């Protein structure tokens, strides 16, 4: 069984962004020309899955030679990183249920991991790319001053809500792959969002996962706050034998 990989999350959109020009879109249909016109024949689902796995293997090799360890200081937006971390998979309610977050342990929960990395990790993705894992949900709570609808207004405090709104732009169905500008991402809001996740799921251990992700923003350490890396994953998979 050691040769198998168990994926939690796999982004088809990012796979397609790396495809060669002539195969930029994964094949979904074949056009046959006949004397009486053209006929579209759907490609078998198994062929599409095989193409997806082949593309992922190529990207594993390509990015594996270029990606930095996520805890490496000085990361830039759009840079690729690889990670190994105990992560909780968290869903967002209301207007942002198309999103999913992966958050690492709160300070003090995993001392060895915390000492090794020296930073927090928050991954943001589209719920469409989940592979079967049932995410937990952040508890809704009443707030004031949020512009974005009642369900959104009962989810996070103001600054955290602004961070969620900025992160959500990449994962809307009409704008898949549009990376939020780092200047639009409120650092205080990201930390408040992590605090809400920590408070809700402090008794739920994270599962060890690994993968590749594209950096959205690195938040520097400030006072009592550790450095934090915010990124959008290509892949997230279980680690069955974490070191």
Q: Can you count the helices?
A: 6
- The average pLDDT is 77
Strand adjacency order, main sheet: 5-6-7-10-9
Strand content: 25-35%
Number of strands: 10
User: Secondary-structure element sequence?
Assistant: EHEEHEEEHEEHHHEE
Largest sheet: 5 strands, mixed, barrel
Helix content: 25-40%
Give the C-alpha Rg: 19 Å
Structural class determined from secondary elements: alpha/beta
The first-to-last residue Cα distance is 18 Å
What does this structure look like?
The chain has 243 residues and is an alpha/beta fold. Helices cover 26% and strands 29% of the residues. The protein contains six helices and ten strands; from the N terminus they run βαββαβββαββαααββ. The protein has helices at 12-17, 45-64, 111-117, 150-153, 158-168, 187-201; strands at 7-10, 29-34, 37-42, 68-69, 80-91, 99-103, 119-126, 136-137, 207-219, 227-238. It has a five-stranded mixed barrel. Strand 2 (29-34) and strand 3 form a beta hairpin. Helix 5 crosses helix 6. The longest helix has 20 residues, at 45-64. The chain is globular, with a radius of gyration of 19 Å.
């Amino acid at each position: 069984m050691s040769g198998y990989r168990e994926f939690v999350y796999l982004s088809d959109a990012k796979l397609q962004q790396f495809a060669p020009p002539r195969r930029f879109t994964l094949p979904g249909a074949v056009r046959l020309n006949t004397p009486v016109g053209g006929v579209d024949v759907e490609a078998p689902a198994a062929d599409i899955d095989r193409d997806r796995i082949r593309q992922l293997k190529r990207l594993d090799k390509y990015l594996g030679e270029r990606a930095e360890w996520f805890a490496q200081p000085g990361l830039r937006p759009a840079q690729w990183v690889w990670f190994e971390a105990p992560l909780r998979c968290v869903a967002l309610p209301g207007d942002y249920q198309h999103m999913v977050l992966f958050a690492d342990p709160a300070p003090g929960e995993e001392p060895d991991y915390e000492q090794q990395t020296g930073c927090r990790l928050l991954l943001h993705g589209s719920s469409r790319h989940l592979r079967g894992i049932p995410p937990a949900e952040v508890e809704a709570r009443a707030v004031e001053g949020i512009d974005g609808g009642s369900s959104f207004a009962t989810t996070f405090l103001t600054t955290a809500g602004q961070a969620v709104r900025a992160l959500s732009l990449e994962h809307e169905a009409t704008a898949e792959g549009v990376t939020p500008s780092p200047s639009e991402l409120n650092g205080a809001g990201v930390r408040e969002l992590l605090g809400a996740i920590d408070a809700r799921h402090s008794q739920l251990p994270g599962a060890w996962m690994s993968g590749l992700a594209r950096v959205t923003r690195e938040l520097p350490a400030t006072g009592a706050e550790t450095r934090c890396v915010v990124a959008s994953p290509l892949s997230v998979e279980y680690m069955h034998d974490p070191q």
